[in-house]
Structure prediction request, 254 residues.
Amino acid sequence: MKVCLIEFTPNPEKVVAAAAKLCYSPSSIEETTANITSESAGSFVKMLAKMGHESPLEHVSFTFGIEGVSRSLLAQITRHRIASYSVQSQRYVKNFNCEYITPPEIEKNSDAKKEFMDFMLDAQNKYEKLTDLLKKQHVEEIKKEGKLSETEIEKVAEKMAIEDARYVLPNAYATKIICTFNARSLLNFFSHRCCNRAQWEIRQLACEMLKLVKQHAPNIFSFAGPSCICGFCKEGRMSCGKSKEVKEFFENII
Prediction:
């Protein structure tokens, strides 16, 4: 897994502080923001985070580049709807290489790993065979129309072929994502996906994303993480029972 912070709102904590102060200030925007320093913004934003006053956080956003994750993870992360996503298309990008994500429990079991790898190789072979069969079919059909050059026919036929051949590709196949969250939505994402009860892959991603944003907005994300680090575990009887260890981990996550 590779995660990078592509872009983010400049001076995010100043922006949040300005937005929050404006709500209660009779002064102009220029006057309200003139005396906000990095230090004063940081302490003010940390107070907001502790109070749970989150609406001003929507004024700042963070854009991430994510590689080496599975299509299974894609199905989970896009459930967080207050965000924007761009995903490598399986309709337009042919899977030349058999790139897939192996779950840790499979990785450490030699017999299970062999079965998994054999299946993935078979899926790749089936994908390539289907692509070839469908491409030949589409080439013949398009040629009969007589509207395109040989080069154009090849391109169009392959695109049509991989559009259907992709149906045999498993959830384990790797993909690439660019996504943008505002800070409030990120806090919600972290509260669900940093939890020990979250699926291992998206939890790993969430923790990497949290490390990145804390470098640039430490006060905004001073209480970010699963619900247990700020009080009680929302998982109830399904709790992992490790709140002390979890709190220590997220206190030292950078």
Notes: Residues 110-168 form one domain. The beta strands are 2-8, 61-70, 83-87, 174-182. The mean pLDDT is 93. The chain has two domains: 2-87+174-226, 110-168.
